[in-house]
Amino acid sequence: MEENTVYSDSRNPLLDLAGQASGVSPLEQEVLDEYERLARNMKELSSALASLSGGPITLEMAEGLRLLERKVASVYTLMKASVYSIVLQQGQIEGMEGDGFDGEDNTQR
């Protein structure tokens, strides 16, 4: 990554869905805003790491970067698991709706 990479601080119009007829609830918009904030923080981290990579590295910096790498990997894994869980739950709900499940026992005796 180049050191002179500049990231825009402007909001992503694709993530700003509130008030549109897209069916996004306030909670979903809040989640999208948090993802946007996380993306902005990751870009800032990337810029800081790019500037650090240009100079000499000390043992203390290397240990700090290893710790940071482990934490970022843990957060990434937890986020992936959360998203997978949500997608799986949505698939199960849609599967139940597709099978005619309406929460009532329609068996004949």
From TrEMBL:
Keywords of the record, alphabetical order, are: Cell cycle, Cell division, Centromere, Chromosome, Chromosome partition, Cytoplasm, Cytoskeleton, Kinetochore, Microtubule, Mitosis, Nucleus
Gene source species: Capronia coronata CBS 617.96
In which family does this protein belong, per the annotation?
Answer: Belongs to the DASH complex DAD3 family.
The cross-references to InterPro entries, in alphabetical order and at most eight, read: DASH_Dad3 (IPR013965)
The name of this protein is DASH complex subunit DAD3
Can you say where in the cell this protein is located?
A: Chromosome, Centromere, Kinetochore; Cytoplasm, Cytoskeleton, Spindle; Nucleus
Query: Which residues, by range, are in coiled-coil regions?
Result: none
Q: Cellular component GO terms, alphabetically?
A: DASH complex; microtubule; mitotic spindle
Which Gene Ontology BP terms does the record give? attachment of spindle microtubules to kinetochore; cell division
Among PANTHER family, the record links this protein to: DASH COMPLEX SUBUNIT DAD3
State any single GO MF term.
microtubule plus-end binding
